[in-house]
């Protein structure tokens, strides 16, 4: 399958699975998020399977009719593996927000470099959305509205992701840009 057809198939699949979903606290259709993550991934790699995985990165978590087996059947083993690596297990029930984040951090510590590119891009797109909302609306409530956490918890989590990216990506471009974005956001929030 040629690249354009493959990307189109993944985009339509993601759009169908996220149909009727919106970004938390907004009326922005959810599909905008994975598209932005895929575009961010393109800054760090030309690998089309990582790009496809970025388009699909939330379908396992957000769509009950999508399984790793279906993703493998439709998009191949590597794409399915990357998506599974970056997803919270759907069947797992967490006792708290912090437990969920701690388990995710443990999960990505052993993730492939391919998956870490998607993780970094995803978190940077999320940070930018929170940063934009903070500049527009201001205040602690922006983090609480979009993240269900305090600013201290938010920065704990995003710092921990940054530490993993620094270690696993050996302070590469993505890890440095991630840290710069987070530090800029932190300075803005502290004002």
UniProtKB/TrEMBL annotation:
Xref: SMART domains: HDc
Gene3D superfamilies (alphabetical): Hypothetical protein af1432
Molecular-function GO terms, alphabetical: guanosine-3',5'-bis(diphosphate) 3'-diphosphatase activity
InterPro entries named among the record's database cross-references: HD/PDEase_dom (IPR003607), MESH1 (IPR052194)
Domain HD/PDEase: 26-136
PANTHER family named among the record's database cross-references: GUANOSINE-3',5'-BIS(DIPHOSPHATE) 3'-PYROPHOSPHOHYDROLASE MESH1 (PTHR46246)
Name the record gives this protein: HD/PDEase domain-containing protein
Organism of derivation: Candidatus Nomurabacteria bacterium CG1_02_47_685
Lineage summary: Bacteria, Candidatus Nomuraibacteriota
